[in-house]
Amino acid sequence: MDQETVEKLARVVDDAAMESTPITMLTAEHDGLTIEDAYRIQRASMRRRFGRGETLVGMKMGLTSRAKMEQMGVHNPIYGHLTSSMKLTSGGSFKKESYCHPRVEPEIAFIMGRDISGQVTSQEALSAVSGVCAALEIIDSRYKDFKFTLNDVVADNASSTLFVLGEKIATPDLDVSNLGMVMSVNGEVRETGSSAAILEHPLRSLAALICMLDSVSEGLHAGQIVLAGGATQAIACTPGSHVSLEVESLGSVEFFVE
Ligand code: 0L1
Ligand code: MG
C-alpha cells in the first residue's frame, strides 16, 4: 500500500475515534490491505495523536484469549499503542457518549523497569519488569457494530481507548500465572476468570509483544505500561455503571460511566 493511502486511512480511523462516529471496515474498500499495511496505518494514526500533543505511555496486547482468537479465526495476538490521553485514574469516570460503543475487559498490567528488545523468553521479559498491577481496559471499535476483520482491528489500534490501573503495584516476583479475577458492575459479579486465560500466562503475552516489536526493530522502554490482555469476554459500558475489578493479590481498580 502506498504511503499516501496509509496516511489517508489513518486519518479515517483517527477522525472516527475523535468524532465517536462508527465507520465501515477499511477492508471493504481496500481488500488487499495486509497485516503489515494495518500496522503501518496504526502507527500513522499514532503520529496524528502525537502531533496533537499526546505521548506514548505503553502498549497493549489484544486477542490474547483462546475464545477471542477462535472468534476471529486467528492464532496469534495483536498489539496496539497506549497514549497519555487514554489513561483514566482508578475511581474516575468517562462519558459513554464520547465513544462509539465502549466495552470493558479485566486485565493485568506490567510496568517496565528498563528498556528491552529482541526475541525474548518469558523469563527475559520478566527481568525487565519493575511492577505488576490490576487493570481495566476500555476498548471501543471504531467500526460499525463492533464488526471487523483482523487487519481492520489492527489498523484501528486494536480498539485501544482507555485504561485504568490499580493503585497497588506488586513486585515482579509475584506469581501472575493463575490469579483469580472478578469483574463487577454496580456490585453485581458479571465476569470471573483467571490470569491464566491471558495467553496461558501474562508473561507469555509480554514476551510475545517484545518479539513482535523486535520484528519491526522496536522494543519497550523503562516506565512504559503493558496491558497483557483480557482474561474474560468484554462487557458493554452503559451510563450509570460502576465497573470494578478485584484481582487476587493485586487489589481492585474501578471507574464510573456517565
Ligand atoms: O484488547 C483486546 O483484546 C481487543 C483487541 C481487539 C478486538 C476487540 O476489539 O474485541
Ligand atoms: Mg484488552
From TrEMBL:
One function term, GO molecular function aspect: 2-oxopent-4-enoate hydratase activity
Alphabetized InterPro entries for the sequence: Fumarylacetoacetase-like_C, Fumarylacetoacetase_C_sf, Hydratase-Decarb/MhpD_sf
Presence of keyword Nucleotide-binding: no
UniProt entry tagged with the keyword Cytoplasm: no
One GO term describing the cellular component: cytoplasm
Record domain Fumarylacetoacetase-like C-terminal: where: 102-255
Highest taxon of the lineage: Bacteria
Coiled coil feature spans: none
Keywords: Lyase
Pfam family, any one: FAA_hydrolase
Protein name: 4-oxalocrotonate decarboxylase
Organism expressing this protein natively: Microvenator marinus
